[in-house]
Design goal:
TIM Barrel; globular; eight-stranded parallel beta barrel; alpha/beta; binds beta-D-fucopyranose; 455 residues
Length: 455
């Protein structure tokens, strides 16, 4: 079979996040997600993260699975309330110990740990003080980052400050579909600023504590396509690109917040004409701290028809003309070329020195068949076609260094609860049995060959 080879040293990994897999909620402080899960109707199946994949109890087995797959790297997140149950002050030694043991286990298995410091599980105690709408939370984040870097930094070189600040701010604070579940357009923008600011402040602190650290941030990016050539659709495309992509990329790469967006928010009376009040002198410089890599989470494109932001119902802008067979069970269109478009665009417009795909994957519920295999052909195809587009981007000069499949395990998919399965490993939530899906077996081959099938 003809294959496309990836560069030597390319990092093949899988990703998870703390709240989605860890369980063991009794042994940590509460986060905004624990509270959000208690809100009637907030989670599709009424579930929560108390048990999840019982990863805290089963991590040794999970690392053995990773080893079986031949993973070169594992991206996981540290739960802030497991380390600092009330967000600041009193440290939990058993909490820190857990990550210590996980890291040791990974290294013993030859797997490079990539640590994400914040994957949305803010300590509830900090939410009571305003959460991310308060500047003090950004300060608390830096203290927390320092504690984790001090403990793990002798063994962990790769650090991601934040996962998808867009989702944490806009989906959590404006659409209200995620914790903390508020609907406040200005609060969402303020949140985005404090998330980015805490990133900018944390990067030098991590570098000071970790020899040869590589520090970056992960953004969820999506190509925006205008529904038609009509000028109103073109205008809408630019606006949504500004809101979704440039609002985060521009400040991280030293351009400050995009002016057209500030103007737009001012026209809608979301922010004053003088700008976002939360942005103080020096903040944009802090956010612009050079990073060692940008992480990109890619799932789909958006096809844009309207420009009525900030109306919440306009968030889901997928192309209604895409046949159902071309969507995953999340309803997200399968559009592999969008990964190439995104990588090339970021490379040309922002030129980060290195890029990782820190998440990419698909929700399909395919379970075990009679012979015990899990024939998730659609996920396998999804991964194959997206790997091919990553390869194409590398050929076009994009400095893509690695690729993390979302997700290692089926897990708690936020407001969708356990209704959506993204894992390459099947999890039976009753028995906690794990089983490699066919996509995992395919991935094992890709990793072993460091190549994808050409067709
Ligand atoms: C991303 C999140 C991740 C997971 C996938 C499906 O937005 O970072 O936790 O939920 O989507």
């Amino acid at each position: 079979m003809k294959t496309r080879a990836f560069p030597g040293g390319f990092v093949w990994g899988a990703a998870t996040s703390a709240f989605q897999i860890e369980g063991a909620a009794d042994s940590r402080g509460e986060s905004i997600w624990d509270e959000f899960c208690r809100r009637p109707g907030a989670i599709e199946d009424g579930s929560d993260g108390r048990r999840a994949c019982e990863h805290v109890q089963r991590f040794e087995h999970d690392v053995a699975l990773m080893r079986e797959l031949g993973l070169g790297a594992y991206r996981f997140s540290v739960s802030w309330p497991r380390v600092l149950p009330t967000g600041r002050g009193q440290l939990s030694e058993p909490g820190l110990d857990f990550y210590d043991r996980l890291v040791d286990r990974l290294l013993a298995a030859g797997i490079t740990p990539f640590v994400t410091l914040y994957h949305w599980d803010l300590p509830l105690a900090l939410q009571r003080e305003g959460g991310w709408t308060a500047r003090s939370t950004a300060e608390a984040f830096v203290d927390y980052a320092r504690i984790v870097a001090k403990r793990l930094g002798d063994r962990v070189r790769h650090w991601v400050t934040h996962n998808e600040p867009r989702v944490a701010s806009m989906v959590g604070h404006h659409l209200g579909r995620h914790a903390p579940g508020t609907q406040d357009a200005l609060g969402a923008l303020t949140t985005s600023h404090h998330l980015l600011l805490s990133h900018g402040w944390a990067v030098p602190e991590i570098r000071a504590l970790v020899p040869k650290a590589e520090v970056g941030i992960t953004l969820d990016l999506a190509p925006m396509h205008a529904a038609t050539a009509a000028s109103e659709h073109q205008k809408a495309r630019r606006l949504h690109d500004g809101h979704f992509n440039r609002w985060f990329l521009d400040p991280v790469f030293g351009r400050g917040y995009p002016r057209d967006m500030l103007r737009h928010f001012a026209e809608r009376e979301v922010v004053p004409a003088s700008g976002l009040p939360a942005v103080l002198p020096g903040d944009e410089d802090a956010i612009a701290v050079p990073i060692d890599f940008l992480g990109i989470n890619y799932y789909r494109r958006n096809v844009v028809r309207t420009e009525s932001f900030p109306e919440p119902e306009d968030e889901e802008l997928w192309d209604p003309s895409a046949p159902l067979s071309e969507r995953t069970e999340m309803g997200w269109e399968v559009y592999p070329e969008g990964l190439w478009e995104t990588l090339v665009r970021v490379h040309l417009d922002y030129a980060p020195s290195a890029l990782y795909v820190t998440e990419n994957g698909a929700s399909y519920s395919t379970g075990p068949s009679e012979d015990g295999s899990v024939p998730d052909v659609l996920r396998l195809d999804f991964l194959r076609t997206h790997f091919q587009q990553a390869h194409r981007a590398i050929e076009d000069g994009v400095p893509l260094r690695g690729y993390f499949v979302w997700s290692l395990l089926d897990n708690f998919e936020w407001d969708r609860g356990y209704t959506q399965r993204f894992g390459i490993v099947w999890v039976d939530y009753e028995t906690q049995e794990r089983r490699l899906k066919d996509s995992a077996l395919f991935y094992r081959r890709v990793i072993a060959d460091n190549a994808v099938p050409a067709e």
